[in-house]
């Protein structure tokens, strides 16, 4: 298990490049980035599920939420807090929010990214299914953090 979890840089798209790595490095779509710090970038989803739909993306290439381990608790917490702050700064309602990660193999980009969607109450039928909370394909940050904390306790 440790071998697979440590191998976070093995998955790139068919062209040999990771589009989210390119965005995080400022190589493409730099004008779309609305927040950046030393660990994260945030930009709008290209197919928004509601009025506000942002992706919080790690600068480090981590394949997906399934490849996280106990050492990643802080970055996931930071992703959640950053997503809420960006949403608020852009006029979104943090009381009507849906946040989560697509669980493999149900993601289109193999690079860790948190969906921040608001207002969730205005999502249409199809997006409600795509971003269905705690389904086999979409999990909340609370669920991911609980999994990581269990993993961290097991490492002690």
TrEMBL record:
Tell me which UniProt keywords the record has, alphabetically.
Hydrolase, Nucleotide-binding
The scientific name of the source species is Acanthosepion pharaonis (Pharaoh cuttlefish)
Which family, according to the similarity comment?
Belongs to the HINT family.
Q: Where is the HIT domain?
A: 19-126
Q: Where is this motif: Histidine triad motif?
A: 111-115
Which segments does the entry list as coiled coil?
none
Q: Name one Pfam family in it.
A: DcpS_C
Q: Kindly indicate where the leader peptide sits in this chain.
A: none
Could you identify this protein by its name? Adenosine 5'-monophosphoramidase HINT3
Task: Supply one GO molecular-function term.
Answer: nucleotide binding
Q: Where are the transmembrane segments?
A: none
Under catalytic activity, the entry for this protein gives: adenosine 5'-phosphoramidate + H2O = NH4(+) + AMP
Q: What is the lineage of its organism?
A: Eukaryota, Metazoa, Spiralia, Lophotrochozoa, Mollusca
């Amino acid at each position: 298990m440790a071998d697979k979890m440590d191998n976070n840089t093995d998955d790139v798209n068919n062209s040999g490049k990771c589009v989210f790595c390119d965005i995080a490095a400022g190589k493409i779509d730099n004008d779309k980035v609305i927040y950046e710090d030393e660990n994260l970038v945030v930009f709008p989803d290209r197919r928004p599920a509601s009025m506000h739909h942002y992706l919080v993306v790690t600068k480090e290439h981590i394949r997906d939420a399934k490849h996280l381990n106990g050492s990643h608790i802080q970055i996931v917490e930071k992703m959640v807090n950053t997503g809420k702050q960006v949403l608020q700064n852009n006029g979104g309602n943090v009381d009507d929010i849906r946040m989560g990660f697509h669980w493999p193999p149900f993601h289109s980009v193999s690079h860790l990214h948190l969906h921040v969607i608001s207002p969730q109450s205005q999502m249409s039928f199809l997006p409600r299914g795509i971003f269905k909370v705690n389904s086999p394909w979409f999990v909340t940050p609370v669920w991911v953090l609980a999994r990581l904390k269990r993993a961290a306790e097991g490492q002690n």
